[in-house]
Design goal:
Helices cover 27% and strands 20% of the residues. The protein is an alpha/beta fold. The chain folds into 2 domains: 154 residues, Alpha-Beta Complex (DHBP synthase), CATH 3.90.870.10; 87 residues, Rossmann fold (3-Layer(aba) Sandwich). The strands form 3 sheets. Strands 2-3-7-4-6-5-9-10-11 form a 9-stranded mixed β-sheet, sandwiched between helices. β10, α7 and β11 form a beta-alpha-beta unit. α1 crosses α5. The longest helix is centred in the N-terminal third of the chain and has 16 residues. The protein starts with a strand and ends with a helix.
Length: 331
């Protein structure tokens, strides 16, 4: 199979890319699409055959649920059976954060196949803010299930070339919308009446969520995921990786091929063959946006080991550290 990259930099290119994407989606084939978080591998969410192709292309285990992207908020009650007690909180969150990188885990309706939800009674839903994704889903007119467009467990793609590295020859089309904005996957939350539990940290932080709920807490991780992105080993490079504890300084060794993913300084880079810095000025948003791209650069450098510094465990730093722990296999 030959994989085409459709550029989407001009209005005419966008029109052509949207038309091609909708044609494939309608035929039950997955398409790689940009979102504001990472690139997603989208498929017709209510078509089990289309969803199965996503799992097969990614080599993703069937128990790991997918996020369903909606064309607009009017679709929410069609796919989710929202308890009356949760409705006020859901409405507040949708009004504030949609479209955007917040995923809600809610009881599902029968419209959503069990394959999408890993057999769970809940469905994870959001609305993407990316204009190209919005153009595609509005033209398609149906929900799109879209996990990250990479082989399962590997580093998430934040550009069209990353998707080509991962899935070239396995899918028909990649729509190139340029680098993604946030660089880490959406925040995933579940509701307990007026309380929120964060199942996966992401661009929408606990601090941003607290004004909308009585309490916000991070849920304990389970061995089997009850929402997307909860496996302990994920986002991983091929190169072995070590994640440093907070305040632990990296120690290089000139006799070994070591790569360093540093937080905001290369002061401790002595003894490392190659170094990537997340953000020299400590900008957490910039660090998140560059995280997976810099991991890919280190992974391609032929090192024996990648050492990753932790970032401050606050705000968006919680999501960055979460991805680094999982990349190192100790999430």
């Amino acid at each position: 199979m030959k994989t085409q990259i459709a550029q989407a930099g001009t209005p005419s290119q966008i029109d052509d890319a949207v038309e091609a994407a909708v044609y494939l989606l309608s035929g039950g084939y997955p398409v790689a699409l940009p979102t504001e978080t990472v690139y997603g591998l989208g498929a017709w969410a209510t078509n089990p055959d289309a969803v199965l192709r996503v799992f097969n292309v990614k080599d993703r285990p069937k128990f790991d649920p997918l996020i369903v992207h909606l064309p607009d908020p009017s679709w929410l009650d069609g796919v989710a059976d929202i308890p009356k007690k949760d409705r006020p909180l859901v409405d507040r969150l949708v009004k504030k954060f949609w479209p955007g990188p917040l995923t809600l885990v809610l009881p599902k309706k029968d419209l959503i196949p069990d394959l999408v939800t890993g057999g769970l009674a809940t469905v994870a839903v959001r609305i993407s803010a990316h204009p190209i994704f919005q153009s595609v889903i509005h033209a398609f007119g149906q929900p799109i299930a879209a996990p990250s467009a990479n082989r399962f467990g590997r580093i998430s793609p934040t550009s069209a070339p990353h998707v080509m590295e991962e899935l070239g020859g396995k899918i028909h089309l990649i729509v190139d919308g340029g680098p993604t904005l946030h660089g880490v996957e959406s925040t995933v939350v579940t509701l307990r009446e007026e309380n929120l539990w964060i199942l996966r940290s992401g661009p929408v932080t606990a601090e941003q969520l607290r004004p909308f709920a009585e309490s916000v807490a991070v849920a304990n991780r389970s061995a089997v995921p009850n929402a997307p992105g909860q496996l302990k080993s994920h986002y991983a490079p091929k190169t072995p990786m070590k994640f440093l504890r907070p305040n632990e300084r990296p120690v290089g060794d000139p006799k070994k091929k070591l790569g360093l993913l540093a937080w905001c300084s290369d002061d401790d880079a002595k003894g490392f063959r190659t170094v990537e810095i997340l953000s020299r000025n400590g900008d957490m948003r910039a660090a998140a946006a560059s995280l997976f791209a810099k991991l890919r650069l280190l992974d391609a450098a032929g090192m024996d080991l990648i050492v990753a510094e932790s970032v401050p465990e606050e705000g968006l730093g919680i999501a960055i550290n979460d991805r680094l722990r999982k990349a190192a296999g100790n999430g």
